[in-house]
Specification:
With 146 residues, the protein is α+β, with helices and mostly antiparallel strands. It has helices at residues 11-21, 23-34, 49-57, 95-98, 118-135, and strands spanning 3-8, 66-74, 82-90, 104-112. The chain has one domain (3-135). A four-stranded antiparallel sheet has the order 1-4-3-2.
Length: 146
């Protein structure tokens, strides 16, 4: 028994909506990120060396980056049917906003009786992420680079 259902979302449009809705929060947090001012001592990803090196390598452009999450749950006790989700959160949002449900990007859902074959399941989502990255910019938001 393989996949019963796989759903890949319209990543670009969902991401655009989140960026538009949260643009002031992103802008405010980005100011702190660019100056590497972690006054609240969150030790958050954007203040760490790897992210700061990424900023320097990209001439401090306004990057949008995603932290990806994969998780699975049983859908019921009476069957072995499982739901697996690939989600992402925008790193340029402050931590308190980043993990809120309305700021989480659902990239793909897999429902089946077995653990999904990761390379097959996630290939489409990774290709769409790479496509957005190659575009360099989301057309409607010329100041954001993925």
């Amino acid at each position: 028994m393989g996949s019963i259902f796989r759903y890949d979302t319209d990543l670009e449009n969902i991401l655009k909506k989140i960026i538009l809705r949260a643009s002031s929060d992103i802008s405010e947090y980005r100011t702190k990120i660019h100056s590497n001012e972690d006054f609240e001592q969150t030790n958050d990803i954007p203040f760490r060396k790897v992210y700061q090196d990424l900023l320097k390598a990209n001439n401090y452009q306004n990057l949008i980056s995603l932290l990806l999450h994969v998780d699975g749950i049983n859908l019921s006790n009476s069957s072995k049917l499982k739901l697996w989700m690939l989600t992402g959160s925008v790193i340029e949002l402050p931590p308190k906003l980043r993990s809120r449900r309305f700021n989480m990007v659902v990239l793909s859902i897999w429902i089946g009786y077995t653990i999904p074959p990761v390379k097959i399941w996630l290939a489409s989502s990774m290709n769409r992420l790479q496509s957005l990255k190659r575009k360099g910019k989301i057309r409607a938001y010329h100041t954001y680079k993925i």
